[in-house]
Amino acid sequence: MIVHVHLVRHGQTFFNRYNRLQGWSNSPLTQAGLDDAIHAGNALKDITFAAAYCSDTTRAQVTAQTILDINAANGHDVPVIHADMHFREQFYGYFEGQDMGAAWLAAGGPHGAPTYHAIVEQFGLGATRDFLKEADPFHDAESDEEYWRRVDGAFALIAANADLRDGDDVLMISHGNTLLSLMQRFAPAGYDLSERPANGSVTMIDFDTVKSLDDAIEVISYNRR
């Protein structure tokens, strides 16, 4: 059974604006972020959503509600939003809220990769998580394995929704690094993943709810704004 999942990156937050790491932190949307959510809502206003999911952070919930309010204003019945921690961005632990440049220097510097892009180029995206956990004095930041175990759980929640039918459209509010991680894991060649997904952008995937996750996702489009 295939459902069409519309992945929207939440609107801009103050931490986005200040270039600070924001995983489980709960920075509110800026006015530009509210406009991002409205833009996404207008882009999706003609779609009838059978279900809606987001993380339990304010930025994700406000973005989801804004999109569904626009949907309702255009005559669609809208679902109740399922907010759950499985849909959160990766957890940066000790480095939550810190300047991105300083945090990635602390994580990658000991490995000869002083920036986020240097870590990705030399060691892969998964290493950004493992190196950050290693540098975290409390080791609270999520490792790559811990991160994917939680994100896989998010898709398991969608697959377990007995009300979904083949061909249904599903709204899912996501986060920047999670979108990049999903693209790296599932996208075929041809996508420019050096381009971060914009706030309010829409990425679309087809999700086969009865297959194992590694075989269940097909990327349809990325970072439409």
From TrEMBL:
<feature type="binding site">
    <location>
        <begin position="89"/>
        <end position="92"/>
    </location>
    <ligand>
        <name>substrate</name>
    </ligand>
</feature>
<dbReference type="GO" id="GO:0045820">
    <property type="term" value="P:negative regulation of glycolytic process"/>
</dbReference>
<dbReference type="InterPro" id="IPR001345">
    <property type="entry name" value="PG/BPGM_mutase_AS"/>
</dbReference>
<dbReference type="Pfam" id="PF00300">
    <property type="entry name" value="His_Phos_1"/>
</dbReference>
<dbReference type="InterPro" id="IPR013078">
    <property type="entry name" value="His_Pase_superF_clade-1"/>
</dbReference>
<dbReference type="GO" id="GO:0043456">
    <property type="term" value="P:regulation of pentose-phosphate shunt"/>
</dbReference>
<feature type="binding site">
    <location>
        <begin position="9"/>
        <end position="16"/>
    </location>
    <ligand>
        <name>substrate</name>
    </ligand>
</feature>
<keyword id="KW-0413">Isomerase</keyword>
<dbReference type="GO" id="GO:0005829">
    <property type="term" value="C:cytosol"/>
</dbReference>
<feature type="binding site">
    <location>
        <position position="59"/>
    </location>
    <ligand>
        <name>substrate</name>
    </ligand>
</feature>
<dbReference type="InterPro" id="IPR051695">
    <property type="entry name" value="Phosphoglycerate_Mutase"/>
</dbReference>
<dbReference type="InterPro" id="IPR029033">
    <property type="entry name" value="His_PPase_superfam"/>
</dbReference>
<feature type="active site" description="Proton donor/acceptor">
    <location>
        <position position="89"/>
    </location>
</feature>
<feature type="active site" description="Tele-phosphohistidine intermediate">
    <location>
        <position position="10"/>
    </location>
</feature>
<dbReference type="GO" id="GO:0016853">
    <property type="term" value="F:isomerase activity"/>
</dbReference>
<protein>
    <submittedName>
        <fullName>Phosphoglycerate/bisphosphoglycerate mutase</fullName>
        <ecNumber>5.4.2.-</ecNumber>
    </submittedName>
</protein>
<keyword id="KW-0378">Hydrolase</keyword>
<dbReference type="GO" id="GO:0004331">
    <property type="term" value="F:fructose-2,6-bisphosphate 2-phosphatase activity"/>
</dbReference>
